[in-house]
Amino acid sequence: MKRWKGLSLLVATAIGVASMTVASMAASPWMKTGSRTTQPIGHYEFCREIPEECRQKSPKRPPVELTRDLWSKIVAINNAVNAQIEPRTDLEMWGREEVWSYPKGQGDCEDYALEKRRRLAAIGIPIGDLLVTVVRQRNGDGHAVLTVRTSLGDFILDNLEGRVLRWSETEYTFLKRQSSLHSGAWVSINDGRAADAVASVR
Predict the structure, then answer these.
(1) Is the pTM of this model over 0.85?
(2) Residue 82: which residues within 8 A CB-CB, separation 6 or more?
(3) What is the pLDDT of residues 165-194, one digit of tens each?
(4) What angle do CA 58, 161, 174 make, to 5 degrees?
């Protein structure tokens, strides 16, 4: 009986440690990015229309310092763009899919992200910390959001969510985003949260 009690205690301890490890990984403040990957077709065509948008290079450096004042500005800009832009699909506006553009009163998800990026850059946030990001929603649909890299983590500005959340607090699967070093390049995102959750119950 003592052997079984000891074994049960060992198993319970191992499960507890694994769970804490998974929770810690899921709560990581910053995304883990991988190698260079394919550029979304909409962004490719956006770059052809406005080449200077995709030639911006940034030095390798720590993310922007997130102060109380900067946080207030990020939240205000996110709220303003979400309120000012009326949601419309690319098919409704252009008659075709995947048209990325700065919105003029109406826009799709990537248009919201581009406008927020433009406004945040105008208040002094380095362009290398403002990254359009492609995610997958829980229903499997693709979606675009804006990632703001900060000293306290990667935060998500989203037209489908009023709050500005840390990336790991969202329910999205993160696929890829603009490179922090070059606005025309894209890198993969190693979003291991789902895999870690599955591994923890095996």
Answers:
(1) no
(2) 112, 159, 162
(3) 999 999 999 999 999 999 999 999 998 765
(4) 50
For residue 21, being part of any structural domain is answered with: no
In this predicted model, what pLDDT tens digit does every residue of 88-126 receive, in sequence order?
988 888 888 889 999 999 999 999 999 999 999 999 999
For the chain, the domain total comes to 1
Asked if residue 102 lies in contact with residue 118, where contact means CB atoms within 8 angstroms, the answer is yes
CA distance 56 to 185: 10
Q: Which residue has the tokens 């894209």?
A: 186
Q: Are 182 and 173 within 8 A, CB to CB?
A: no
- CA distances from residue 155 to 20, 101, 110 in whole angstroms, order as listed: 23, 22, 16
Assigned domain for 68 exists: yes
C-beta separation of 35 from 190 below 8 A: no
